Amino acid sequence: MLEKLPHAVGEALSRVRAGAEKAAFHTVAAEAPATLRVTSQAFADMAPIPARYTADGEGLSPPLAVADVPRDAAALVLFVEDPDAPSPHPLVHLIAWNLTPEDQGFPEGTFASPAGDGARHDLGRNSFLKDGWLPPDPPTGHGPHHYLFQIFALARPAELPASPGRGALLDALRGNVIAKGLLTGTYERA
Question: Residue 104: CB partners within 8 Å, gap ≥ 6?
């Protein structure tokens, strides 16, 4: 959808960004130790996300793995945000909650997306108000966007309504995160 914005508009907005300091990793979970390891077979930390997982490709959710989950974790949350979006808050690309601590591998296409239904169903609303993976779709000419794949280990399961949004998730994380991890992928349209 954003690929249709004229290059000049993306370039004009290139300095307008939500900011990484507004991401959950740096706000409601700031005090939690960053001891979880988050990796992907598709891209390395701070490396480009292959087009296959974006709006320019099939739009599948990328494969992810989590390691070093604390034994006392009651649940996991995967929260993907784009702090480079030209908006007041980071753009939400995925909320997957109520994941068990044993859920430490998420194969390609695990989460519902434009490419298919996926296998996981405890999903929240992304910024386009759909439950599932919102593929990266930065405006042309806006510069590189950083996609923060944040994993949170919780002391107690998150009590959330069906299809929670960003605000409800942040409230559920506040004071409940015992460990966190971060993998950052990038994507840019020239």
Answer: 65, 66, 67, 69
Strands, E assignment, 11-134: 37-39, 47-48, 64-67, 75-82, 91-99, 105-106
Per DSSP, the three-state class of 14 is: coil
What are the two backbone dihedrals, phi and then psi, of residue 15, each rounded to the nearest 5 degrees? -95, -5
Residue type, 173: L
> Is the full-model pTM beyond 0.85?
yes
Contact 113, 135 (CB under 8 A): yes
CA distances (Å), 82 to each of 30, 138, 155, 182, 185, in order?
17, 9, 26, 13, 10
Q: How does residue 13 score in pLDDT terms, banded at 50, 70 and 90?
A: very low
Partners of 91 in the beta sheet?
82
